[in-house]
Amino acid sequence: MKNHLELKNITAAYDAHPVLHDFSLSVERGELVALLGASGCGKTTALKTIAGLLEQDSGEVWLDGENVSRVPAERREMSLVFQKPLLFPFLNVAENVAFGLKMRNLAKAEIGAKVTEVLRLVQLAGFENRLPKQLSGGQEQRVALARALVTNPRVLLLDEPFSALDARLRVEMRNLVSRLRQRLQITTVFVTHDQEEAVALADRIAFLDDGKLEQIAAPQDFFTNPRTVETARFFGWKVVEGKAVAENVIETPIGKFNQWQFDKKIKANQILQLAFHTSRAELTAKNFDSQTADTIISGKLERAINLGAKSLYFLRTADGERLEIESSAEIPANDSEIGKTIKIFIPANAVRIFIGLTFCLFSLPVACHLLPA
Fold it and tell me: For 329-343, what is each residue's pLDDT tens digit?
């Protein structure tokens, strides 16, 4: 599938403060790509650059094989939905949605038909004559979405449009956007700092850190195959520094990892970083044979929260490392367990190793084997 939208080596700054650094991104036609990262990482700057609201210092924006880097925003045929709906308070719902069509001097009958259809799509049929002050937050955002879609844009841009809504409304709007995108097959770039939102909506996630693209991949890849330490940390991996002390042993603050099939590039005394995803870990209070048990490390329970089907456990290892594990283990989440030593089991495919700027994944015979330090 041919790329519909491309950002090539974009560098952008605000008041001489660099925000994006050599940022490149390709989006296929009909694809939804989420720009994800912490506040200030450059997500909204990238979106404004795509929309033409911010002129990049260097690099190019391409749309359908055309360089639109110097094309004004109003001629790029893109629609942007902001965090706040920004509706005209003196216009009713139908008039707000029709505003962009009127600017194009379309016939009144055509405008009416398009407005009626798009309000039906966003589930606001019957709301045509209401003013913004008569709408809930979720309804206002639906109007903003309808106004963006009614002009049939080449690219839909969403800048954290659900961040001001409560949890229930956010899920509803998420589901609505997903249904609309599948129906309309519109190319969409969605900015969010919410990991769950990105995973729920995106075909691919572009993770940014400090103005740089760290990784772009399908959502599940970030939980199984992070390419950088920054990406791993953001997606809930526990990262610890390690040192290769022998052919098949890595020492870390939380224990020794052994029985690895090391790549030849791993040398004795080499410093590296080891990560495992806490969502893949399981807990048990049972004793174990340290010579045969799979992937084990110990920690003292400091706090536990019962979440129903699972519980959230806060543990501290002997070296002072804190771990947060969500588990369905049969360990009571109450004060009577506080201070007890808990064993943590980590499957082999939940462990990754990073050496410098290079990612390494080592195949294991059964499981990575952790022993107390």
Answer: 767 666 667 888 888
